[in-house]
Amino acid sequence: MTVGERIKRIRTFRHMTMEEFGNALGFEGKSASVRVAQYESGTRVPKTDMLREMAKILNCSYDAFKDYNEGSAEDILETLFWLDETNDIWLFEVPTSPSIYSKKGRNKKDSDSDNPNTPFNEDDFSFSDTPIGITFNFRTLNEFINAWYKKKNELKNGIITRDEYFEWKINWPYSDD
Prior knowledge:
Blueprint: H1 3-13, H2 18-24, H3 30-41, H4 48-58, H5 73-87, E1 89-93, E2 132-136, H6 139-156, H7 162-171
Antiparallel strand pairs: 1-2
C-alpha cells in the first residue's frame, strides 16, 4: 500500500472529506481538495513535516504513513534471511487439527483463542504445503507480535470491531494496550 493509499484510508476512516482535510492542513479554497487528491494519488509526495502534520490532524501515529516498500514475497523473504543472520529466526510446522476447529460452526468453547499453539483446520487456509510458523530470537519483536496476535484474536472473537482493530493498528505502538 502506497503512502497516498494509507493517507486516503485513514482520512476516510476519520470521515473527513478531502476538502476538510486540506483545510485542516492549511490549504485554502479549491486547492485544499486538489492538494489532498494529489497526495492520495501519488502525484505529489508529502515531505516529512507534512506527514507529521497529517498524522496529528488524523489522530494517528506518524509511523502509519511510513513507506515500508512491502515488495514481493521474494523481498520479504530476503529481509527475513538478513534478520536471521543477526537475530536467529526459528521456523516450525504449525499443526493442523480435526474439523472441530474449522471456521464453520466453531464453538468458542472448543477453541482456545489465547493459546498461541491452538491448532486450526487446514481447510480454513490456502497452503500448498504444511503451514510454517516463525518466531525470532528478539524479545521485543516477539512481544510486539504477541500483542498483535492478541488484538487480532479480539477482532476474530467479536470483542472489538474492525474499526477498533484498525484504530489500534494506526496508532501502534502508541496504542493503550
